[in-house]
Amino acid sequence: QMNNIFQQAKQLIRDEKTADALELCNQEIQDSTNNALAYQGAAFALYRLGEIEKSMEMCKKALSLDPNLAFPHLILAEIFDDLGNIQARKQETKIALELAPEASEVLGTHGAFLLLDKKYDESIPVLEKTIKLDPNDYNAHNNLVVAYLHNKNKNKAYEHVKEIYRIRPSLIGGIRLAIAFLDIKSFFKISNFIFLVITIGAFIFQAWNLLIISGLYIFFLMSVGLVLSVSQKNLLSSKHPLCIAKNSPKTRVSLSKSS
To answer: Using only C-alpha atoms, what is the Rg of the chain?
Structure first.
């Protein structure tokens, strides 16, 4: 029952019902003041709601009841990162890794922080291990896209973008996926070839109106190509993890099913 409360809270947060998750945990705390996992769930919900100080208090309470919990250290790591205290963030992440070195949540968060520190090569094996433990870890797939794109491995990045779309399919996500991995150079090559065919045809058949169509056609395609090129650059050059799939910035702590 105690563990079930935290799982329920995490599912509510996953479903973007964070206030309901907090209410659930607070009710459990009233009924059982020694439930460390209820405090842990409340800490997570409060963090997502931007209540940083209260979240820290709940983390400390959870750890006072059960020092072996790793998840509160992940939340504290997030908080310290938000506050710019990188040393404290690294310390909290280290403690979490010592307590639960094989937990997907811990590995996923550690991998995301490595990514933020621009340690791309180090982040990849950590995040790959994360998705082996939890293939539906949306955040880990997102962050692998960032890491592989930085290493110019577009094929591997594309594999994980497909996984992102599998986990959370949406029309907007599909459009972003198509733009992110569109071969712009091939787009322009095909466009230029069609323009050349129309132009040659105009001269051969003396259909001068085709020249006007050809000019309008190339102007349109160049405009589209420029928009796509800029959009692709913006999608693939975000400095923050989760650059491909649209999501809340407060998503580095994993929402996997493990406790």
So the answer is: 24
